[in-house]
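wait is this the right file?? whatever heres the structure
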């Protein structure tokens, strides 16, 4: 089973969301794969009514409090009430454009889990960090920050998204993705143990397209992909999902 997730970022209002859903053809996608989209919050209701039943919904960000004087923010409990089952947390644009810290990412993840949503925590190094040989150090620091929150989750997704590969057309090689995932998997095993009933699914993200999805999805340890740009096109999103290999 692979998870195919589309992060729409600040694209697609309600009308475009309805058009996307109407145009999505999933006949060639194997039934075991799980499909998620993360529309802007204002398009959640449109997505919720227009989506094909097998497509699940998430939000792109939440606040760590359930309610309060936080103008412009949205809580995990509100997202859930509005139809979201997943929440992206710590996307590189949140970390690097909006200055989110590991501590805030941890608090948000805790709020998501507490409210019964499945967190999709994003981690990944910048180009400078990669060039300095700090990939492992950075992604381990980012994953360690959320381990206490993940300890109480029944299910969580972690997306390894090297910042230099997001929206740039540059993609990590399948072996780079496998290596980062193996590092994350080992750390999660060490910190969380093999608790029966808990599942942590590891995704790769960074310029995933129909042309490279097959080899990335077949890479060792890669259990799915998080797609930005290509997920805005229903044909490309469906083609990426159709490239996911059969159940492994
Ligand atoms: C993303 O935003 O999570 C992403 C991976 O973007 P893109 O596919 O456009 O690189």
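ok assuming it is, sequence goes like this
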């Amino acid at each position: 089973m692979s998870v195919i997730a589309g992060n729409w970022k600040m694209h697609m209002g309600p009308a475009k969301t309805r058009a996307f859903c109407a145009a999505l053809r999933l006949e060639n996608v194997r039934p075991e794969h799980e499909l998620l989209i993360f529309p802007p919050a204002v398009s959640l209701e449109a997505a919720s009514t227009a989506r094909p039943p097998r497509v699940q919904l998430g939000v792109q960000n939440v606040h760590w409090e359930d309610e309060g004087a936080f103008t412009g923010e949205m809580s995990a409990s509100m997202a859930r009430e509005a139809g979201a089952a997943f929440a992206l947390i710590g996307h590189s644009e949140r970390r690097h454009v909006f200055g989110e810290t590991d501590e805030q990412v941890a608090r948000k993840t805790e709020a998501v889990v507490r409210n019964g949503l499945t967190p999709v925590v994003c981690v990944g190094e910048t180009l400078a960090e990669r060039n300095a040989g700090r990939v492992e150090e950075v992604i381990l620091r980012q994953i360690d920050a959320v381990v206490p929150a993940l300890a109480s989750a029944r299910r969580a997704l972690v997306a390894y998204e090297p910042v230099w590969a997001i929206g740039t057309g540059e993609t990590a090689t399948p072996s780079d993705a496998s290596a980062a995932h193996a590092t994350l998997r080992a750390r999660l095993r060490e910190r969380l143990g093999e608790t029966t009933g808990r599942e942590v699914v590891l995704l790769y993200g960074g310029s995933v397209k129909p042309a490279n999805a097959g080899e990335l999805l077949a890479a060792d340890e890669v259990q799915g992909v998080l797609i930005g740009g290509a997920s805005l096109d229903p044909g490309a999103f469906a083609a990426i999902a159709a490239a996911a290999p059969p159940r492994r």
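The longest strand covers residues 199-205. so i think its the right one actually
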